[in-house]
Amino acid sequence: MIVLGLNAYHADSSAAIFVNGELLVATEEERFRRVKHWAGFPTKAIQFCLKEAGCTLDQVEAIAIGRDPSAKRDRKARFVIKQPRAAWSMWSQRSANKDDIEKLHERFEEVEPGVDTEMVRSKIQFIEHHRAHLASAFFSSPFEEAAVLSIDGSGDFTTTMLARGKGPDLDVLESEDFPNSVGLFYTAFTQYLGFPHFGDEYKVMGLAPYGDPKYVEQVATFLPINEKGTYHFPIQDYRLDGGVVSYPNHLPTVAPLFGKRFEQVFGPQRQKGEELKQYHMDLAASVQCHCEQVIFHILRRLHTLTGLDRVCIAGGVAQNSVANGKITRNTPFKEVYIPSAGHDAGISMGSAQYHLHANLGQTRVETLRRAHTGCRFTNEEVESFLQSENVAYTRYASDDELYDVVSDALVDGKVIGWFNGRAEFGPRALGGRSIIADPSRPDAKDLLNSKIKRRESFRPFAPSILSEHVSDWFELDEPVPFMEKVFPIKKERQAQIPAVTHVDGSGRLQSVYKDVTPRYHALISAFHAKSGVPVLLNTSFNENEPIVNAPEHAYACYARTSMDLLVMENCVVRRD
User: Fold this and answer.
1) Of 22, 112, 132, 350, which has the fewest beta carbons less than 10 angstroms from its beta carbon?
2) What predicted TM-score, i.e. pTM, was given to this entire model?
3) So what's the pLDDT on residue 445?
């Protein structure tokens, strides 16, 4: 059985394909279009999935899309009556999108010219947004039974959904309706702090450790916690009359969300590009602190409802890696699983999984431990590209020789573009499309920020660490395969890896397993043998663009930045 999953006409458009219940490949459309968070119909991602599966659309059993226009119609109607101005703006934004969804089957003509679009229509299954999130977390996890949480800005009129998963079943226990949203709360403060673009919330998370949470009491009034394990969204403090997210030219654009009381309480909004002051850092710390408390509050409620010690989490708010790293210390849950694409790109994977398991009752397959489900290229394809561009390179016949050469360069202080195997699915580079460096270099962070990444100096870089050494370097030793949690680095180790130690002594780690990413593990092991450090600085292979996907993207990024080496499979390009 072949099932195709889609996230279409929504931020981070993507496609995933399952064959006999197992994920074959999954990827975001942005990787092909080279436009961040691209939000249209994922034509190229679908074509990639079909090609990798070796099938045509008539061989696909079902096409699951992670949205359900019919979800919560009665509650939507009540919202229209209570909040007509906000509802009108949202309806205006969604009206064009409604036509896109109704004519979704027609777009498959672009995927496979001449296809019977009515045949395609008969295969489409609409899966509620948050149920797809829940499925992407639970059905990918190693747990036979677990509590499950989906939490984000909003989707299909839901903002938070609590469930219990067991075997192939997902039982929804409770949900919160729009606009009662942790995601909108965090986005409104992100905008107020001068970061206006879709997806900028991680900047507030990175800025927070530079401040003290002095204003938690005031911040909490914008999302008060209720005793019953829920929270309240005081809609009068926010602006929803401009809608929330629109998609001009398939680019997600967030309308201004913070209301007048933000400036009454905290003073004038910080303008984009304005100097960051300690006040802004303290406010960011306060927002992050309260967001964590709300998340823990919801999770305690979920634990009370389920009595289970394992939890799976997805949704945009599940990208808050700082909060994720504190869950086992602040809630009764003892184990946490978050998929590599916990954000909206994972909707494609989750919608297919929901149809396979919850709808069809198909038995679950093995845990999804790998995020490398995107494009890959052979050495011959890499060489063909480099030769077509007249680029000098060396191809190493032996992997061991390659690791020796690259680890020598790392020890020598070189910054390297590492392009290996399949691209990752999700927002994190995990050794497939990474820029890597020696984490012991005190100047590495500034060098990367100024000459390659060209981003805000307060944002940290991540440590990729051999899984067998995590307990020697971090205060906690939990599985973190997808760089989805931040843990404290042991105090005695922080000075040894300054380039990946954030200002508060933490690191957003990736635990690297030999059986999951053998080549990346081997490279770090070679570096460890020479340096005594089982860690590499790892950041995404890009420069203010989507993560590189193909050799031409990797070489273009290398050529316009100050990387010293470009490694694509076993081919090495040197700056000299």
Assistant:
1) 22
2) 0.96
3) 87
Round the CA-based radius of gyration of the chain to a whole number and report it.
Answer: 23
Task: Give burial (CB, 10 Å; 0-12/13-18/19+) of 59.
Answer: exposed
Q: Are 313 and 324 in contact (CB under 8 A)?
A: yes
Residues 409 and 573 sit within 8 Å (Cβ to Cβ)? no
Confidence of residue 91 (pLDDT cuts 50, 70, 90): low
- The position carrying tokens 């340096």 is 531
> Strand locations in 89-228, DSSP E?
124-126, 145-155, 158-166, 169-177
User: SS3 for 486?
Assistant: strand
Cα 485 to Cα 506: distance, rounded to the nearest angstrom: 10
Of 129, 128, 124, 148, the C-alpha closest to 138 is 148
CA distance 339 to 430: 13
Do 14 and 347 contact (CB within 8 A), yes or no?
A: yes
Digit-coded pLDDT (tens) for 513-538: 999 999 999 999 999 999 999 999 99
Cross-strand bridge partners of residue 448 = none
Do residues 567 and 417 make contact, with C-beta atoms less than 8 angstroms apart? Answer: yes
- Structure-token pair, residue 82: 């209570």
Lowest-confidence range among 90-99, 229-238, 297-306, 404-413?
A: 90-99
* Whether the predicted pLDDT of 135 surpasses 70: yes
Kindly list the structural domains of the chain, giving each domain's residue range(s) and its CATH number in brackets, ordered by start.
2-131+348-359 (3.30.420.40), 379-574 (3.90.870.20)
| pLDDT for res 99 | 61
Which residues pair with residue 540 across a beta bridge? 434
Other Cβ atoms within 10 Å of 405 Cβ, number: 15
Helix, strand, or coil (residue 357)? helix
Assess contact for 437 and 449: CB atoms under 8 A: no
* Cα 353 from chain centre: 18
β-bridge mates for residue 174, sequence order: 162
Phi-psi region of 450 (alpha: psi -120 to 50; beta: other; left: phi over 0): alpha
Q: Are 432 and 543 in contact (CB under 8 A)?
A: no
pLDDT at 122: 97
Band (228; pLDDT cuts 50, 70, 90): confident
SS3 string, 90-128, reads HHHHHHHHHHHHHCHHHHHHHHCCCCCHHHHHHHEEECC
Output DSSP code: residue 256.
Answer: P
Mean pLDDT over each residue of the chain, to the nearest integer: 95
Span 358-390, pLDDT tens digits: 999 999 988 899 999 999 999 999 999 999 999
Given the structure tokens 């001449």, which residue do they identify?
Answer: 114
pLDDT digits (tens, 9 = 90+) for 165-218: 999 999 999 999 999 999 999 999 999 999 999 999 999 999 999 999 999 999
Half-sphere exposure of 272 (CA within 13 A, CB side): 6
Backbone angle region of 20, left / alpha / beta, with phi > 0 → left and psi within -120 to 50 → alpha: left
